[in-house]
Specification:
The protein is an alpha/beta fold. The protein has helices spanning 16-26, 35-48, 59-69, 87-94, 113-125, 127-131, 160-170, 221-231, 255-266, 268-286, 319-328, 344-350, 358-366, 378-393, and strands at 52-56, 77-80, 98-101, 145-151, 173-177, 185-186, 189-190, 197-201, 214-218, 292-293, 301-303, 309-313, 334-335, 367-370. The strands form 3 sheets. The chain has a 7-stranded mixed β-sheet, with helices on both faces. The chain binds pyridoxal-5'-phosphate.
Length: 398
């Protein structure tokens, strides 16, 4: 199966520096909760321009800790986007908070700040106005609007200027899922540091990897301390190994992973530049294709961080056929994202239907992620480009 493809969908970018960093940990007796974790966290906090980082076992775990630290619980309403990887909404469901979806901006795929402002005002007004935004049904009764969980889609930060004005007006906590935007900047400010807390993720397809892993970055010392306890089975800083002040989890990141992450983070600038170069090759190769729209950067994105390369197919092009044709040429590709509100368990729980979030659904129908990584060669980009060109310009092929 694996070698049916000539180009991998994604690849980590690893060097001798990473191998050495991991091997050095194996020469010590500390495989968890040691100096690599502390050093990785310090570097992550600096990258996001904040005081604290808490590294954990996945991006999803990091999101869950944010939800816990923000005190979100049963019935609390949280404005968020249906155009994301499911983990952002799932973190709310773990605590039985209610995601209140708001549709996205067509250009960036990020949550639409005008609609967020309208939703916050309507939810504050209550009754009829509020009902427009709430799910058709919910296992828990709707409580108060408490927070805004944004997602920086495909490596571009959401429009935080407008979003934060709304959040201030309505007393909302802003949580930033920056799992796809490590190294990006919004109007000169680093991603991850744009909300009360931000989340990074280090799965192998992300800009840097630890195998599995994630982190929360925040200026809130009280939150950082709370999250350090929660990730470590609820032990407080002064608890012994078998003392547990509160209900916690095992969300720890081991030393091997932290060492790998630290070595990757030291190369962040190089990794981002390589990804930018590959995106540039795609731009040049696909620029003339009539049926293919290329990703556009918004004005607020003063530095993009390319996570994936996602194009949009024109209205008349049948995406499933394009995916099959690319596959026959040995090129993998993916529909990206499938809207969260239409995932079976979300439909069952909240009664969502097709048509509820039209922009998200349009993007979900037309978006196609192409193979992408910082180690891709120009020849590989050409191969993808040729195949896509042949497939989308085939006479009568749509
Ligand atoms: C990758 C990602 C996550 C976290 O994923 P994990 O696999 O749990 O590390 C969360 N949100 C978004 C938007 C992501 O892309």
């Amino acid at each position: 199966m694996a070698d049916k493809f000539k180009v991998p969908m994604s690849s980590p970018d690893l060097t001798e520096a990473e191998r050495r960093a991991v091997a050095q940990v194996l020469d010590t007796p500390r495989l968890s909760m040691g100096p690599e974790l502390a050093a990785f966290e310090a570097a992550l906090a600096a990258t996001a321009g904040v005081a604290h980082a808490v590294a954990v076992s996945s991006g999803t775990a990091a999101l869950h800790l944010c939800v816990r630290a923000a005190g979100l619980g049963v019935g609390d309403l949280v404005l968020t986007t249906p155009f994301s990887f499911v983990a952002s909404a799932n973190a709310l469901l773990y605590e039985r908070a209610i995601p209140v979806f708001v549709d996205v901006d067509l250009q960036t795929g990020n949550i639409d700040p005008e609609q967020v402002a309208a939703a916050a005002a309507d939810l504050a007004a209550g009754d009829q106005e509020a009902r427009r935004w709430l799910p058709r049904r919910s296992p828990d009764p709707a409580g108060r609007l408490k927070a805004l969980l944004t997602v920086d889609v495909f490596g571009q930060p959401a429009d935080y200027g407008k979003l934060k004005r709304t959040a201030e007006q309505h007393g909302l906590t802003v949580l930033e899922d920056s799992s796809e935007s490590l190294g990006a900047a919004y109007r000169g400010l680093p991603a991850g540091g744009l909300g009360e807390a931000g989340v990074f993720a280090f799965y192998p397809n992300k800009q840097i990897t630890t195998g599995e892993g994630g982190a929360v970055v925040t200026d809130r010392e009280d939150w950082a301390e709370h999250m350090r306890s929660l990730r470590n089975q609820g032990r407080s800083q002064t608890d012994g190994w078998l003392e547990h002040t509160q209900l916690g989890y095992n969300y720890r990141l081991d030393e091997l992973s932290a060492a790998l992450g630290r070595a990757q983070l030291e190369r962040l600038e190089e990794l981002l530049l390589r990804r930018e170069q590959v995106a540039g090759w795609y731009q040049a190769r696909l620029g003339g294709l009539a049926q293919v729209e290329l990703p556009e950067l918004s004005e607020g994105t003063t530095r993009p961080s390319w996570f994936v390369y996602v194009v949009r197919l024109s209205g008349g092009v049948e995406r499933a056929r394009v995916i099959r044709a690319l596959e026959q040429d040995g090129i993998p590709s993916r529909a990206y994202f499938t809207p969260i509100h239409l995932q079976p368990y979300m439909v069952e729980r909240f009664g969502y239907r097709p048509g509820d979030f039209p922009v998200t659904e349009e993007l979900g129908d037309r978006s196609l992620a192409l193979p992408f990584s910082g180690v891709m060669t120009e020849a590989q980009v050409d191969l993808v480009g040729e195949s896509l060109e042949r497939t989308t310009t085939r006479p009568g092929g749509n």
